[in-house]
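Run log, item B.
One chain of 566 residues. Sequence copied directly from the ordering sheet:
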Amino acid sequence: MYDLIIRNARIADGLGHPLVEGDLAVKDARVAAVGRITGDAASIVDAEGLVLAPGVVDVHTHYDAQLTWDMTASPSPALGVTTVVLGNCGFGIAPASPAVRDLLLANLSEVEAMSLSALKAGVAWEFESFGEYLDVLRRRTSYPNVAVLASHTVMRTAVMGPAASERPANPAERAAIVALFRDAMDAGAVGLGSSTSENHRGAGGLPVASRLADEAEFAALAQVQATYDHGVFMATCGHHTTVEVLAQLAQVSRRPTLYAALVDYPAEPDRARRIMAGLDDARAQGIPLYGQTSCQPVSLAFTLDGAFILKTIAPWPADGDRESLKRIFADPGFRAALRATLARPDPRRVFNGDWRHMEVTSVASPAHASYDGRTIAAIAGEEGRDPLDVFLDLGLEENLATLFTGRILNVDEAGVEPQLKNDGVLISLSDAGAHNTFLCDAGYAMHLYGRWVRERRALDLPTAIRKVTSDPARVYGLIDRGRLTPGAFADMILFDPDTIGISPLERVRDLPAGGERLIRRAPGLAGTWVNGVQVFDGRDYVRHARGPGHVLTRFVSGRPKWAMPA
């Protein structure tokens, strides 16, 4: 007697082999059999020829706070995700003594564009240490499986307070940071997350704390990793953090090291190609360097009083109330200075004044309805006006309520395709749980199956499935995840390859304190199961008193098989 049988499916094993027609049985959370199954089960589902595949392993999310109030990790399971990794870019909420909690939330609010009121109302501070945070996740349970990276910025802040964003650590502080990392690894962290990105700023516009870490601190953390038989290092890299820098750290840690974000930059079209070639060369030498890329355009929606993507462009104001911002935006001197800055493209910026990639998503006034869905460049060309003036004037006329969308990275699909086809590059970068009012990229795998497999035919379906299931599970050392073979955990999705995709953005208000966010749906997704338990039925979440997801704290042991150079 099985717990579940899914019959008449086209089964993808997640390892890249051709799909096979047949049935799959589940017993005690694991795949019990695959083939023609004659036994009975407590629950039987007729797949009617749909594709049954492993659930998506999303290694780049920011659900650290949300999972303390929302065990569904919405919207990820409704977009085919069955395992999420938290703590990316070095941002999180543990360890957290009462003295630094407000600062941690303020940093998250700024760098990950999360509603501060929602964070304050929603985060359950039932922990201080990293291990206690994992205990909270176990008690509260979740729909997807969860693995957590130790958060570099959080550990620095826990030790140094506000000074963490102002200077390098002294030797005593460095030792304390290293001790916190060791505590996290002992408790079950999947590795370390950090950032050196110039675009990552925390409360008050200050750099996130990990950006102030010096070479000695990174080396000390890598030395800690070398003492464990598991763990990855995930780095969101600024321009000065080169492949060579990561290779040096990987040779110390001997652990998989991931470069993010490996995406196509419009202002520097050869950048991704150069980085990817460097990663390939490193792996050829036995150094375990990988990339993280996205398979969809990286787009951010915003209004002018919360223009996250423009805050690194001088003289754009970091903060201000609506009336003060309106005065700034109307000032001809401000416009002239901003125009001069945009005239000097900087590859470190995510927007460099290409108004063809800035769209009016939703106007606030019916008088401007003809602008909806059009680019600033197109409107400016039609009206014979400067695009910056069009952009700012429209926002001012609508009291800063106009919703714009900037397509900032991965705009050229021809530039994106080489990354997707490279097996040393993991497809992820959803940022799920963050930038809630600006984007929702949690459905990247559904976009991969629809756009890149069905429409562009750049990848075949078995390969595309492998790249978002067993590939990330293998690199991160997740045990028995990302594949549908006997003995593996029954994390699965059922979908129609002829219709799978992602919907346009929808705006909802369901965060704590009435916070707003954007979500997407996945037409063609018929169901999601985690550890053999259905969590999404194709229309809505299946309600459970306790989520079926596991908190993952044990990972593949043993030294890596690659040969490190002498």
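Observations after the first pass:
- The domain at 56-297+410-478 is CATH 3.20.20.140 (TIM Barrel).
- The radius of gyration is 23 Å.
Flagged for discussion on Thursday.
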